[in-house]
Amino acid sequence: MYLSLPLPSTVTRMMTVTVFSGTGDSLPMPYTVTVPKNGVCRDLCKALSDACCLKESETLLLGEVYDYRIYRYFSPLELLHIIKDGDQLVAYKLPAGHEKLLRIEILHRNVDRFTPEPQFNARKLIGSPLVTCIPNDSTRKADIYAAVSAVLAPFVRAKVHAPGESLLNGSRPSLDGIVLKDNGASCEKGLSTSNVDEATSDAEFLPFKLYLSDDKGHIRNPVEEDSDHVFGLPMRLLMGWSDKEHEIYNLKYMDDLPDVFKPGFMSKKTRQEAVNLFSCLDAFLKDEPLGPDDMWYCPCCKEHRQASKKLDLWRLPEILVVHLKRFSYSRYMKNKLDTFVNFPIHDLDMTKYAKHTSGGDQPHIYELYAVINHYGGLGGGHYSAYAKLIEEDSWYHFDDSHVSTVNEEETRTSAAYLLFYRRVDGNSCAMADVVPVDTHMVDSLEA
Question: What is the model's pTM?
Answer without folding.
Answer: 0.60
